[in-house]
């Protein structure tokens, strides 16, 4: 709060204001010297103060006043009956098997739940029906190929949660690719983004803008995948 | 006539069953507030902003920064409470409680993606900007504790947001928020992606 708007607010130190601290008494000086010496001898006995943690308070009341969007009924989650999760080493090996130039794989969890291939097909169809209620359309930078890919991935994550999948993250991620070849109506010679899905029938590439699905081994740009984010 | 009617009814059964399945009620994302420049237009940032932000925050190893878009808007930090609320309600709409997410195998990348998608769709609904929403993900090694998150050496991911306050880290389950410069593990960043 600026109480004096005509003058800039200044911080004045006592010394600069012409005031001096009263001289310390000899006993105090002695005590300060002893304490100072002890501190020097022991190093820093007190830990550095931890940075204060800030907590974000979600504005749930404001959100409650907003309308809800009705999305079509999603396909029921099909849990692949595999006792083992798909380890990151196996993901890397699957890429190595499909291409001599495997992409960099970025991940947080080191094991993933594979999708049922038939669920993937049903999900691709469901995702296409989100365009109207969510008003999804291509917009340069704002909602381009990588947003389509992340949107596809984000809703797959949500449906897995809805289906009660608690074993771990699902094997759905997105990738950056240089289109050496045209694929699914997207021209060659540009950087692009697609979805990568690990299923019980192998690794698949999905073009989220039109729902084209291809096995990674048949994907024409498998040698120019640059990075995958699982 | 009767067998024909029966066949028609049977043919329509799967359609009816699908229609009977309840749809998904999804919260509408509030339009994020974007920072304006001195001329009243939406402020744009790019690679240099992020490089400077990382440098000033004490993050090293810029080769671990992936920017997919060339130009981004800047989110006003006043938007953060509504962003956080949307994320929690969106997850609740599928029966997931964000606050309890760390009780199972947690993947912060999924929440970063979801929030970025929600904010991008909301901005798209408002107007076409040709700017990406600056919500990304930061993957770190937790060498030092941050609030209730232990310093156990585990790999972890948080939401990273470019705001007028600088780059902010948000952890949805704990609701912890801090500037990247104050984040205790800013020297063990493995990947940043916007």
Helicity level of chain A: 25-40%
Distance between the termini of chain B: 62 Å
How would you spell out the order of helices and strands of chain B? HEHEHHEEEEE
User: How many beta-strand runs of chain B?
Assistant: 7
Q: What does this protein look like?
A:
The complex is a heterodimer of chains A (230) and B (194). Chain A contains 6 helices and 10 strands. Chain A has helices at 26-42, 60-64, 88-98, 117-128, 131-134, 145-162, and strands at residues 54-55, 68-71, 86-87, 104-106, 111-112, 172-178, 191-199, 202-207, 212-215, 225-229. Chain A is of the alpha+beta class and 230 residues long. Chain A has a domain at 86-229: Beta Polymerase, domain 2. In chain A, strand 7 (191-199) and strand 8 form a beta hairpin. Chain A is globular, with a radius of gyration of 29 Å. Chain B has one domain (3-9, 33-193): Beta Polymerase, domain 2. Chain B is built from 4 helices and 7 strands; from the N terminus they run H-E-H-E-H-H-E-E-E-E-E. A 6-stranded mixed sheet of chain B has the order 2-7-3-4-5-6. In chain B, strand 5 and strand 6 form a beta hairpin. The longest helix of chain B has 19 residues, at 2-20. The termini of chain B are far apart. The relative contact order of chain B is 0.19. Mean pLDDT of chain B is 89; it is low at 13-18. The chains are: A alpha+beta (230), B alpha+beta (194). Chains A and B meet through strand 1, helix 2, strand 2 and helix 6 of A and strand 1, helix 3, helix 4, strand 4 and strand 6 of B.
